[in-house]
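Appendix B, Record 12. Input sequence as logged:
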Amino acid sequence: MKRSCGAAVRGARPFLLLPVQLALMVGLGRLVTGPGAGYWPLSAEASIGRELAAGRDPATTGVTRLFSELADTQAVIGTTLVCVVALLVLPRVALRSEALFLSISVAAQSAVFVVVTALVDRPRPAVPHEDAAPPTSSFPSGHVGASLALYGGLAVIAALRMRGPWRYVVTGTLLLIPPAVGMSRMYRGMHYPSDVAGGLLNGTLTLLITGFALLYARRPAAEPDATERSDRDVPAPRAAGGPVLVVRHPYGCPDELADRLAAVLREHGHRDLRWILTSAELPCGTLAEELRTVRPALVVVCGGDGTLRACAEILAGTRIPLAVAPCGTGNLLARNVGLPMDPVAALAGSLSGESFGIDLGRVRGDGLEPMRFTVMAGAGFDAAMVRDASPRLKSRMGWAAYVLSALRHLGDPGVRLTVRIDGGRRLRRRARMVVIGNVGTLQGGLPLLPAARADSGRLEVVLFDPRGPFGWLTAAGHLATRPLRRRPPAVAGPAAPDGRSEAGGALEYFSATRIDVRCAVPQPRELDGDAVSEGVRLTAEIEPGALLLYLPRAPGAPQDPPAERLPAAAPGAPS
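Logged structural output:
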């Protein structure tokens, strides 16, 4: 504990340079507006602005407007929020340091800018302005500083995390945006060249300080390979009463990983392994057909949440236990029940534990056949982002494809809807997104539904409706800081029938065993991260303990009391 606290203190030391940055920017501002104003090149800045204004044409004015809008307050806040969420949610292992680096860079640059403009008074250039002039000093350029903190920060992350030729294309493109913004602001009569230079300096210093504090020389400690355990770590083989059906996603679980998982199963006494490959048309392969001829001792799912959901649909209520080797992008169920993200370690740990009954959600709606989900069902913004992400871009750019998709829907209006909790009266609401969760934590440890637990016997619901940039910031800050607060215990009984508001009304929570949502207009819908058909109605019910899942410990342990252990049914026993 002392070592980790000391490391945290040392890592925070570079932030002590932020006051030095502030003092430097104020000093430069006073120099530009004071003694240095009469000397070249500052003395020539006014003529440059007049020449640019005299040579304006419609085409160039339109292009510069685009770059100017890329760096306005709403665009910077919205893009930052989307990128931070994408860094936490989309990669298999959440990029927490990168997300923190990006958010702090944008916030710190803005804080320094606000203080500097309060202490340095410089009027805008005396030329016609193409944009509305904010009531701040012309020095330094806030647009330029914000664009460098945001797009330059994304360039740093791309350079560190991307591979192949796209790494250079993405990094170079992002680095070109801040100077293009600076040229656009001068062309549109909003800043002098020295204002732009000040904005570039402010953004650069912010990136250097936050990058050194959060990214420099940070290397995650490698987890020991689960196949390299010593003999004393290998549990005694467990007698296998029947074959093991291994449902394998061919891309998420390649041959080399499949061999390692097979070795773990053999260590635990399972010799009769029958492999089932999935496909786009058959997300659980031929599992249903196999179950008609044999009752296995165990089903192992080597895939992501979509593969797991398809298998859970078939295994629900059969009392055939299931074990998970998380091989997908999200792996949200595995995260929420405490499994490691290494597939081999997760399988080994699960087989060393016991089988526990976890809940499933069952959902239906207009144009939607009844089906189950293990993680979450939703409608609105998140479903639109998943649906419209380009498969081609996803294969080439990874999480960046979801960011581009989310940006397209950032300005989508909220929808009017009604919510009915456990058959009660209909509540009229407005929301951008509705999420119904069996579990509640997203990638990066972001607790969207803090009371949700896989064995609680209830579903948790959140309506998400931020109003304007301040609403987005309030909601994001509330969710991001929630892990620092003590987690409330799961609700054992009915929650307040009219909901519970948080984050200034941007988030509203409900808890129930049955939820009925009806939207005024058709909305995109999703189940466990897979897009399904659009519709206006979504009805979800809980199926308590419907799925037996092998886990090292009960869901929520050790913080929560252990759940009742449910022994797996003997092979051939009636269901």
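The CA atoms of residues 23 and 116 lie 9 Å apart.
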